[in-house]
Specification:
The protein has 881 residues and is mainly β. Helices cover 9% and strands 50% of the residues. It is built from eight helices and 48 strands. The strands form eleven sheets. It has a 22-stranded antiparallel beta barrel. The protein has a five-stranded mixed β-sheet with strand order 5-10-11-8-9. Strand 32 and strand 33 form a beta hairpin.
Length: 881
């Protein structure tokens, strides 16, 4: 039995290819007529098999795939907005009928605006945020409504999950990927877990790629532009055995220079840039259809990236000559200069010792002649001698089997995923080899899900689904630190520095004090999670529905830590004897080493966690008519706790409590003005108890005088309103406007260090807006397409507005980002049948300057920032055949 083409979607392999609103536009009357005939033919086929031929979605008895295409407009030439299909609740349904706040980006819009990574989503979804694009795989951390964004913590789970083709990524760093052949992306707000996968406390990003099709087709895309960008995408699908086995293969190459130039490594024509892209990714899928009621989809994928990504903050502010509390002479930085060969008889370059210590403004490095080694402030130049590319490898395999039996669908999803990466952070120390740190990390997961879903029908009182989910995951992390010949002078205390500078022997001991030392902190975090979940829709009347959902998770967690001294460095006692150094000089060198070198110890097991976690939701909804849906919900979400070890020699354990969310939603989804206007409004109130957050406090045992750690904020929350609207002006022009007002703040005491004062002081952030969370975010634009001289012309304009915000909780002056708007423009010209298109995509059209992160100046360094991407022009050619 063939699938019926709905107004904007075609179903395949149990999924629906969602059509973007703009995709539903009709360019030509001839095309409309052709499609009307195609729809009628499909309806007749279904009637012959006893299926109901209506505009409603009809579940296919076999996963028959067909090419997506525009659908006929109404009598006035306008296409309605009522048939965008989603599967966020594990069944095909119209997005406007889903009583949840969900944002759907269809495949054509994703393709048109070159959205291929989750980092591209915040510009489209106002209340979605991520850590700065391009940092590294360890810091991928989405948040919704300003809540849930974490840092580089390998033991903590994410509050906002990422799901790819039904598989939840336990370690969010696996979302460090470019996705091609996207069918759609669904962003769900609020606690998740009563429908599928892993429980999340604040939301989920559901990524769905196109399934294999029995209709042969191929697509090809190549793009080039500024920053030496050269990208290529290829996709092909078709039958291997007619009616039984189909395939889909995709391949992507993503290459482009970064915004930042490392002047230390760039000489002559040789240029080394940072925040670059350099990925290779491939996916191979198979669709098996042995019968009308049984389908299986197998996906294999692999990605490799070799990218200089982690360095890219620039110096922006030295600070004043006095602290802000009027104490003078405090804003200084130790600056060292290389010891010349003539002075000490050394050979081999500048990294063999030091002539003297110089006091200067923070963030600047001078030699004895006053030469500045650091790049100028407020430029895209950096100077880093030690940073190295991040090399990331990841792959996975998943198998989804759907068996339709007795008006139910039994689904099994089995998956394995693996990732490793290695990164060297370096530091902006110019020509000085002070030290390096980084990360070597391995993570893997095995998951199994079984789900039983009833088939919806108009006369049924109850629709339901139940499921079991099992996860076994491990994150093994090696965090190394190693030091060069300049580290001793940079890290020595003032007293030890003075002692060692008194003689050539002392200077040589200072050079050797940390040179060659390599130590690493290793953690081994494991989790086993077993859950049962279910959700029921009780149709009280034809218009009123009450939804109940419940999830019970039993979770076991373990974590172990060890401290390893892989290379102890030079033998200081033997060297002091050879040099004839004094006992005081040897003691000063040893003290300099001991201040940074941790005491080695074998693996120490933390106290295990064995927790029972409950999540639930209740939500009434009411359809006033076919075009207006009222809904509300209250739900409890939970994110499990984790075991954290501090960075000291004792490796003291802290058990971070589970994060518990209570979420309220109240909204309306409507189609107005003869379905030309889509207007959705959602009000929300989110309360979190024991919110997991990082902190910074004084610690005299640390060289910096401070220690960083993790703990629980007693109460934190967000409240606001979200708006989604689009207006179909004509069958050629669509206007869209999405926005959010979000007040996200600490509700109980949370101490934050006062910046830029000479003494250590803290202020209470209670009542303050969270850092990097604008209160107002608006995305708006238009899409226009029409025949032009025998071709199809297209104009796409999109804007993202963000209100002013502090980029750091400490509210330092130079971390304040004023409100700004970024505009993107797309111009395309192609064939009327859409078989090819040449286009220009201009990001940040007006070259708006803004920061995405910022830190303030301190007594040991300048203020830094990461700049938002400047104007960038790309030329793109796409072809289908």
């Amino acid at each position: 039995m063939a699938a019926i083409l709905t107004a904007t979607a075609i179903m395949a392999s149990g999924h629906v290819h969602a059509a973007d609103d703009d995709k539903a536009l009709s360019e030509l009357q001839a095309e409309n007529l052709r499609l009307k005939k195609e729809i009628e033919a499909l309806k007749q086929q279904s009637k012959g098999a006893g299926a109901a031929a209506t505009t409603q979605t009809v579940t296919p008895s076999a996963p028959v795939a067909a090419p997506s295409a525009p659908v006929a407009a109404g009598n006035d030439g306008v296409v309605a907005f009522d048939k965008v299909i989603v599967t966020s609740r594990n069944r095909e349904e119209i997005a406007q009928d889903v009583p949840l706040p969900v944002t759907v980006l269809g495949g054509e819009r994703l393709d048109r605006e070159d959205i291929k990574s989750i980092y591209d989503l915040p510009a489209q979804v106002p209340n979605l945020q991520l850590n700065e694009r391009g940092e590294n795989a360890r810091k991928v951390s989405p948040s919704i409504r300003g809540l849930g964004r974490g840092g580089a913590n390998d033991s903590m789970e994410q509050s906002v999950g990422v799901i790819v083709d039904g598989v939840t990524l336990y370690y969010s760093g696996q979302a460090w990927n470019d996705y091609v052949d996207l069918d759609r992306i669904e962003v769900l707000n609020g606690p998740q877990g009563t429908l599928m996968g892993k429980n999340t406390s604040l939301g989920a990003i559901n990524i769905i790629t196109k399934a294999p099709s029995f209709t042969p087709s191929s697509t090809f895309e190549v793009s080039t532009g500024q920053l030496n960008t050269l990208n290529g995408k290829f996709s092909s699908t078709g039958p291997l055995i007619d009616g039984l086995l189909a395939y889909r293969g995709t391949f992507v190459v993503d290459r482009g220079d970064g915004l930042y130039l490392n002047t230390y490594q760039s000489q002559g024509k040789s240029k080394e840039t940072w925040r670059e892209s350099n990925k290779l990714a491939g996916r191979l899928q198979f669709l098996l259809t042995p019968s009308e009621d049984l389908t299986a989809r197998v996906i294999l994928d692999k990605t490799r990236s070799d990218e200089r990504v982690n360095t890219g903050s620039v110096f922006i502010d030295n600070g004043p000559s006095t602290w802000r509390n009027s104490v003078t002479g405090a804003v200084t930085s130790r600056v060292v200069a290389p010891l010349s060969a003539a002075d000490a008889g050394y050979t081999g370059g500048v990294n063999y010792g030091f002539l003297g210590k110089f006091t200067s403004r923070a963030g600047w490095f001078h030699n004895a002649n006053g030469t500045v080694y650091q790049p100028r402030f407020n430029t895209t130049d950096i100077e880093n001698s030690e940073a190295r590319p991040q090399v990331t490898n990841q792959h996975g395999i998943s198998a989804q089997i759907d068996w339709r039996v007795f008006n139910h669908t039994l689904t099994s999803i089995s998956a394995y995923r693996y990732q490793d990466f290695d990164i060297k952070n370096g530091g902006q120390n110019g020509q000085f080899y002070i030290g390096n740190s980084g990360q070597q990390l391995w993570n893997k997961q095995v998951s199994q899900e079984l789900r039983l879903t009833s088939t919806p029908a108009p006369d049924k009182v109850l629709d339901y689904q139940v499921g079991l989910y099992y996860l076994d995951a491990q994150v093994y992390s090696d965090d190394p630190s190693y030091y060069g010949p300049d580290a001793g002078a940079w890290n020595a205390s003032n007293a030890n520095y003075a002692t060692l500078m008194g003689s050539a022997a002392g200077r040589e001991l200072m050079r050797a004090s940390l040179n060659g030392v390599y130590q690493s902190r290793v953690t081994d975090a494991r989790v086993q999670s077993l859950a049962a979940y279910g959700q029921t829709d009780w149709h009280l009347t034809e218009k009123a529905t009450l939804t109940f959902g419940l999830r019970q998770t039993q979770e076991k967690k373990q974590n172990a830590v060890s401290q390893q001294l892989d290379r102890p460095g030079e033998d200081l006692t033997a060297l002091a004897t050879t040099l004839g150094a004094s006992a005081g000089e040897l003691a000063a060198a040893q003290a300099t080493r001991n201040a940074l070198v941790q005491t080695p110890f074998g693996f120490r097991e933390g106290d295990p966690i064995d927790a029972s976690l409950t999540a639930w939701n209740v939500g009434p909804s009411y359809k006033l008519n076919d075009d207006v849906l009222l809904y509300s919900s209250v739900g409890k979400g939970v994110k499990s706790g984790f075991i954290y070890f501090d960075t000291g020699n004792a490796a003291t354990q802290s058990t971070i409590k589970p994060e518990k969310t209570l979420d309220f939603e109240l909204g309306v989804k409507s189609l107005l003005l003869d379905r030309k206007l889509q207007l959705n409004v959602n009000f929300y109130l989110t309360k979190i108890k024991d919110y997991q957050a990082s902190w910074r406090r004084e610690d005299a045992t640390q060289v910096s005088g401070f220690a960083n750690g993790w703990g629980n904020v007693e109460k934190i929350g967000a409240k606001g309103v979200e708006l989604q609207t689009a207006y179909q002006v004509t069958n050629h022009l669509t206007l869209n406007l999405n926005g959010a007002y979000n007040k996200a703040e600490y509700e109980t005491q949370w101490l934050v260090q006062v910046p830029e004062v000479s003494n250590t002081a803290y202020f209470d952030a209670k009542g303050q807006q969270l850092a990097n969370v604008p209160k107002t975010t608006v995305s708006y634009g238009l899409h226009y397409q029409a025949p032009l001289a025998g071709y199809l012309g297209r104009v796409t304009l999109s804007n993202i507005y963000r209100s002013s915000v502090y980029l750091n909780d400490n509210h330092a002056e130079n971390t304040f980002q004023k409100a700004y708007t970024v505009t993107n423009l797309g111009l395309g010209l192609g064939a009327l049948n859409r078989n090819w298109e040449a286009s220009i995509l201009v990001r940040n059209l007006f070259d708006t300057e803004y920061n995405t992160t910022a830190s303030t100046w301190t007594s040991t360094g300048a203020g830094t920032a990461v700049w938002g991407a400047p104007r960038n022009v790309q030329l793109i050619f796409k072809a289908k055949y």
